[in-house]
Amino acid sequence: MAAYALAHLYETANHPDVFEYIERIQPTMDPFGGRFVVHGTMPEVIEGEWPGTLVIIEFPDLDRARSWYASPAYQEILHLRTDHIPGSAILVAGVGPDYDAVATANRLRAAAG
Fold this sequence. Notes:
The protein has 4 helices and 4 strands. By secondary structure, it is of the alpha+beta class. The chain has a 4-stranded antiparallel β-sheet with strand order 2-3-1-4. It is globular, with a radius of gyration of 17 Å. The two termini are 30 Å apart.
């Protein structure tokens, strides 16, 4: 099942280190099957507030997403971004093609008593 690395970057920075990070990130993702789904686009906020931008990288599964983030190749370049752009990053498992929101609602309803 697909998994995603999401980064909520609170602000942007036009810094040489950030440009280098962007240039070097794809080769760190390739061995783990990572691909950008969203990158460098300002989100359209339709509810609440969302300062900054969003990056979403898809991986074949959560284990490969974790392995990419912990890899020496990615750890070597990570500071190029984090030194200049504050933000948060998470890894999350996706749902499969047979996901049923109604079944989820029923499970939650039953668990709530």
